[in-house]
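Run log // design_07
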């Protein structure tokens, strides 16, 4: 929904054209602890009520109540859509309920209320809820993955995730990281997150995120704005909140201090002596790192030295990284120089490709595209 800021009704209408069945669910994307059984139970309740209905009336809506508080998901009959279209896109769900026959049901499942307002809260939830029935199903499976290439050594220390544009390299890396966090594996990871796209489908910028976990239920987490387009209307606001660009690359302005913040987090993680194998994650190693020793290269070198030291102690630490296919030969050469055996997992494209995005770290350089 390009107008998500306008409110919940705006997002419902954005998805309405995909509704084909007699009813549909509405839920928040930041509520990952709702177990599948909640959806099944709500649908069964709606089916029972419809069978008992004596005649046509207002469109039905169903939701659960936990300890007196309304939760999600909400199930609407498809016939509610014309009514929803009549109210303002900036309205809340309450305005929708006023048009429907709302039915509620008590539940003992707290996941219908629990939401996470930012990435750090979600990461903590993986530690608190890990291993329970309503743990998000992340990181345990290959994600759009084809067969791995033969390993260069019997026990590869490095896994390289590669694939064509839109195959999901960053997503696959993050899912592996989240799965390791659920398992409380000591880890440290750095990756980029897109801040949004303009009307032409071009990235408005990227944030750099870094996180680490050693033990307990605390996560060290840093998120910094790495780059934005020079024409971004929010550039002044970004500067007021600490964004201090000192480099320009193509249409993007860069703040290299974001890399330093991530490196500082890695160093904090390494002050804790490893007692068992650690996993390091680093996303999108491109020509900036592999040819010019810039960008994430200092973080990569620190991680590699730590892995080598850990493995001399027999701990079995390893690295998971992603790279575009055109930079794979450079990465292979570098890992061979460092004496790190590796395996390559090649991802296959999604059936419906994602919109092509411009990667700010490769913008303006002939023959290169974003991930």
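design_07 sequence
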């Amino acid at each position: 929904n390009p107008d998500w800021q306008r409110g919940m009704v705006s997002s419902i209408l954005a998805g309405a054209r995909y509704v084909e069945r007699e009813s549909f669910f509405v839920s928040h994307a930041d509520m990952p602890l709702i177990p599948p059984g909640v959806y099944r139970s709500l649908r069964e309740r709606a089916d029972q009520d419809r069978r008992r209905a004596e005649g046509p009336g207002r469109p039905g809506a169903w939701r659960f109540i936990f300890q007196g508080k309304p939760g999600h998901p909400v199930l609407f009959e498809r016939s509610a859509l014309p009514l929803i279209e009549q109210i303002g896109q900036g309205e809340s769900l309450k305005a929708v309920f006023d048009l429907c026959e709302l039915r509620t049901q008590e539940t003992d499942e707290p996941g219908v209320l629990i939401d996470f307002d930012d990435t750090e809260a979600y990461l903590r939830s993986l530690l608190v809820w890990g291993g329970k029935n309503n743990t998000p199903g992340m990181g345990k499976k290959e994600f759009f993955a084809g067969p791995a290439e033969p390993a260069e050594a019997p026990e590869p220390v490095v896994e390289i995730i590669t694939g064509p544009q839109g195959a999901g390299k960053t997503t696959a890396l993050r899912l592996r990281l989240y799965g390791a966090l659920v398992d409380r594996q000591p880890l440290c990871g750095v990756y980029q997150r897109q801040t949004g796209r303009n009307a032409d489908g071009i990235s408005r910028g990227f944030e750099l995120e870094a996180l680490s976990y050693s033990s307990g239920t605390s996560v060290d987490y840093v998120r910094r704005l790495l780059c934005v387009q020079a024409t971004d209307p929010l550039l002044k606001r970004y500067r007021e909140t600490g964004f201090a660009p000192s480099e320009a690359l193509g249409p993007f302005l860069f703040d290299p201090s974001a890399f330093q913040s991530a490196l500082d987090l890695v160093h904090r993680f390494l002050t804790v002596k490893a007692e068992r194998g650690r996993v390091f994650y680093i996303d999108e190693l491109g020509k900036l790192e592999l040819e010019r020793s810039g960008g994430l290269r200092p973080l990569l070198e620190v991680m590699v030295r730590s892995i080598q030291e850990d493995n001399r102690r027999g701990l079995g630490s390893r690295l998971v990284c992603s790279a575009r296919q055109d930079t794979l030969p450079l990465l292979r050469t570098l890992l061979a120089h460092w004496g790190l055996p590796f395996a390559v997992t090649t991802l296959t494209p999604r059936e419906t490709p994602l919109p092509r995005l411009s990667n700010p770290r490769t913008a303006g350089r002939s023959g290169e595209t974003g991930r």
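The chain has two domains: 4-112, 119-347.
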